[in-house]
Structures are given as C-alpha cells and as structure tokens.
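lol forgot to send this yesterday, sorry. struct tokens for the thing we talked abt
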C-alpha cells in the first residue's frame, strides 16, 4: 500500500498525525487479539467438552434403546430458547440463557415407570445439543473476529507504520535538501553581489 503524500509541511504534519494514531492504537489492537485468541482457545475446549458430554448422553440413550421404541416422542418438545448477548473483547456473541421445554401431561399409572427418567434424559440431551450449537456459533464469530484483528495488527505493524515512517523520512530529506539549496544559492548570490561591489569600486 503506497502512502500518498506531497513534499510540504502540511503533508508532513498530516502523516505525523496518522503515524501517531497508528502507533497509539497498535497496543490496543494487540491486546484485543490476544484476548480473542484466549477466548477462542477457551471456546474450543468448551465445545470439545460439550461434544464428549453429548456422546456420553447418547450412549446412555442407546443403552435403553429397546425401551425407547415404546416412548411417546410427542410428550416433550423444545418450547423456547432464551438468548442473551455478551461482548467479548468488543465482539457481540450469542449466549444461551435457558431452554424451555413443553411437556405434555401423561398418566403416571398407565405409562411405564421409566417415562419420567426418559423425559429427564431427553431434556439433558436436547439442552447439551443446543448448548453445543451455540458454542460452535460463538466459536465461529470469535474466530472471524480474531482473524480480522490479526490482519489489522499485521497491516499496522508491517505495512502502514513502516510506510508512514518512510514517507516522513522522504519529506524531511526533501525539505532539508531544499533548505540547503536555498542557503547555497543565497551564499552564491551574496558572493556575486560582493564581487560586483568590489568591481565597481
């Protein structure tokens, strides 16, 4: 990315201002990146734990597979999922607050005894699956934000800050050269004027 500038004081001041902004902002962006990196790691661990928990619950479910054939699946439904939003290092991520289930009434006398346990198992299974999906969604958002932040850090560190420093160096050299030329030409002019005065005398 080539930085556009002119060889004058106004351009010099604008570039110095832009450089200061980037130098001041860089540590903040680096902190954000490290916070996001840490949160992504934590989120991955949480997703793995939920995956393992879900597998265990599914194995419990499969252990009673023969009984599940007689279970009435219309007894339990996910009624509502309560969402929240949390900011992590400036990134808004969804937060699962609660899951409401709708349980249809059933007769405890005419239904098998294990129906109450079955409903409890299905509740746990559904909650874990929903929580896992939210964690994966959160992980996706955090990963995206971390990549963008890393790109910004690299842009500032490797492109913009060195680019502004280089542009400032060029402008300063140009202005110094111009000043030196001006001084030299003044000296030459002065010496020519002195020679003329001496010739007149």
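and heres what i got for the seq, position by position
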């Amino acid at each position: 990315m080539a930085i556009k500038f002119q060889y004058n004081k106004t351009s010099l001041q604008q570039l110095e201002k832009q450089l200061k902004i980037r130098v001041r902002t860089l540590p903040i962006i680096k902190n954000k990146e490290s916070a996001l990196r840490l949160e992504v790691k934590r989120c991955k661990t949480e997703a793995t734990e939920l995956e393992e928990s879900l597998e265990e619950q599914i194995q419990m479910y499969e252990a009673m597979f023969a009984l599940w054939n007689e279970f009435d699946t219309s007894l339990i439904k996910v009624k509502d999922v309560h969402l929240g939003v949390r900011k992590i290092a400036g990134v808004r991520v969804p937060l699962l607050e609660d899951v409401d289930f709708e349980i249809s009434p059933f007769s405890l006398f005419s239904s098998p005894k294990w129906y109450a346990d079955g409903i409890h198992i299905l509740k746990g299974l559904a909650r874990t699956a929903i929580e896992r999906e939210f964690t994966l969604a959160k992980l996706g958002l955090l990963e995206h934000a971390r990549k963008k932040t890393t790109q910004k850090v690299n842009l500032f560190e490797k492109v913009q800050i060195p680019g502004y420093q280089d542009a400032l160096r060029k402008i300063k050299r140009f202005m110094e050269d111009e000043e030196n030329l001006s001084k030299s030409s003044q000296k030459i002019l002065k010496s020519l004027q002195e020679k003329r005065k001496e010739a007149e005398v």
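Residues 12 and 172 are 8 Å apart (CA to CA). anyway ping me if u want another try
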